Amino acid sequence: MAGFTSPPAPDVQTDLAIDAIRPRPQQPRRSFTPESLARLTDSIRTHGILQPLSVHQTAAGYDLISGERRLRAARTAGLTTVPVKVFSGLTERQVQQLSAVENLQREDLNPVDEADAVLDILSAELDLPKDQLTPRLERWKSMRMRDPALARASEDERQAIAHLETLFRGLSRGEWTSFVANRLPVLRLPAPLLEAVREGRLDYTKAIALKRAPEDLRDALLAESDALSVQQIRQRIQEASRTSAPHEDLNRALETFRRLTARDQLAQLTPEARRELLSLLKQAAAVMGEGSKVPARQRLK
């Protein structure tokens, strides 16, 4: 299987005009904070670019494979040329893999970009679209947990899982089952949490804790997250859940009552049912009118 397990070598290393390099339409979305870009720009002004960018030469020009942050910083620093490794004759799948592998080698990679980069590699190696990959990985993980010897797996499934294990040894990213259990969930975070993790404003473990919070509470806790531990965030969510649960029950009951007491439904009541409903409504009015300090049964005597 070509690709990550047999990475292509560049044809040449040279300097190239910045304006000749263009991001690919399929370029993975990566996050660059203004602060990190400013630091890199200062470093490039002082030391230049120490690690060449990677580009793919095609008939139309030079497509960027990796090094988007260095390219932006170099332009801001006023450079007109940058050092590049030039590849040619690659398939889109090889370009995708090379881009993902080089991104994984970044020291400042956040958990969102890391999970994306690993999925890019797996998608190419296993020949599966990314949107089909996550459920497949979760199914294989469950299979491995229930049946470590994979005695009930098909031959195709055994080969795919064996290939996963080989790939993850090469990636130095731990066990693939750990990736599925602990890293993939980050891609399912609500958009505000996903962006906060991607931009480095929120720790991954806090984001997972915040995931289950109601939206308004989640936003409030996100704003305070720097001052809260993961345990404190969980406690705040549990406390809010205990106090809000009775109101949610009442709201659901009232919604059901409104639906059942629509005008056409009332017209179909028998005289006996009408009397019983009136009695219950008087009890409800008594409860709401007198407050809740005295038990309703005592007030209705």
TrEMBL record:
Taxonomically, which superkingdom?
Bacteria
* Pfam families per UniProt: ParB_N
**Residue limits of the ParB-like N-terminal domain?**
14-104
For the region Disordered, what residue ranges are annotated?
Answer: 1-32
InterPro entries from the UniProt entry: Chromosome_partition/occlusion, ParB/RepB/Spo0J, ParB/Sulfiredoxin_sf, ParB_N
Family according to the record: Belongs to the ParB family.
Which protein are we looking at? Chromosome partitioning protein ParB
Protein species of origin: Deinococcus sedimenti
